[in-house]
Amino acid sequence: MRARTALLVVGAATAGALTVAALLERVGRSGTVADGRAPSLTTSRAGRTGTVAGMTARAGADYAATRARGALASPQRRAELQAAFELRTAEQVAERLGHMKGALMKLGQMASYLDQGLPEPVREALADLQSDAPPMSAELAASVVSEELGDDPATVFASWEEVPIASASIGQVHRAVTMDGREVAVKVQYPGVAEAISADLSNTDSLFAMLGMLFPGLDPEPIVEELSERVLEELDYRREASNQSLFAAAYDGHPYIHVPAVLHDLSSARVLTTELASGARFAEVLHWPDGERQLAAETIYRFVFGSIYELGAFNGDPHPGNYLFRPGGEVTFLDFGLCKRFRPEELAQFEAMITTLVLQRDPRAFKDLIEQIGILPPGSPFSDRQILEYFGHFYDFVMEDEVREMTPEYSSESVRRFFDLSGEHKAIMKAANLPPSMVIIQRINLGLYALFGDLGASNNWRRLAEETWPFVEADVATPMGERIAQWEARRGDPAGSLHEADRTAQDRS
Question: Is residue 94 scored above 70 in pLDDT?
Answer without folding.
Answer: no
